[in-house]
């Protein structure tokens, strides 16, 4: 298992002895399921990003198009209009900047502006996506999704969700590697909530080690405030912080190295406590001090 992720200007330590990383979510959209577009204006978005960094975020993930179930497609020009100003404003913030997009044209512009990672819900399947990222040194987050955001929650079905998700991710990693992109630039995301029922999501969460074993790349997980958290807790979006933090801790306990979250401060604190109380924490601390 690789212990580092090449992520543009950054080389991220993702070994088992390293603290799992927290990726803060910055939605620049008027219809996000979670923040209702409150971070759309540039000043508000910049303030929120700086707040997440102050709270301990290791990365910032910028998105200009909502990928909630049933969300409408955003035109290319509008997505660029939303994300480019904040990307330029944050390029020297000292943290890796990820851009959440599946459009090759957006990938190209984002990389020119200083993006360090492309987070693609479509697994870089769009024509031109691999060409857009191939000649850079950005990180690639390769996600599994059944169908597309408009139809993904219309009766999703699997014969074996663990096997199918794992095989898809392994196949995409192999195909992307064959296109000349180094594995050191890749991480994988099982795609919680993207074409999956609650039962599918729970089955994946309980068995993330199997996905990790199959693909042998760092795992990223995003469950923050999602419908699966609401279904388990019975809470509306604005009251899902505790459930989201709990899900993040379960994920890291099962091998996830990056968690994508809205509630940065609470997640960072929870992971610090988990890291300090792991059975091998004392040994890791002693080795680090030698």
TrEMBL record:
InterPro entries: DHP_synth-like, DHP_synth_dom, Dihydropteroate_synth-like_sf, Pterin-binding_dom. Pfam families: Pterin_bind (PF00809). GO terms for cellular component: cytosol. One of its GO terms (biological process) is tetrahydrofolate biosynthetic process. GO terms for molecular function: dihydropteroate synthase activity; metal ion binding. It is an enzyme of class 2 (transferase). Pathway: Cofactor biosynthesis; tetrahydrofolate biosynthesis; 7,8-dihydrofolate from 2-amino-4-hydroxy-6-hydroxymethyl-7,8-dihydropteridine diphosphate and 4-aminobenzoate: step 1/2. It catalyses: (7,8-dihydropterin-6-yl)methyl diphosphate + 4-aminobenzoate = 7,8-dihydropteroate + diphosphate. Its cofactor is Mg(2+). Residues 20-272 form the Pterin-binding domain. Catalyzes the condensation of para-aminobenzoate (pABA) with 6-hydroxymethyl-7,8-dihydropterin diphosphate (DHPt-PP) to form 7,8-dihydropteroate (H2Pte), the immediate precursor of folate derivatives. Belongs to the DHPS family. This is Dihydropteroate synthase. It comes from Noviherbaspirillum sedimenti. The gene is folP.
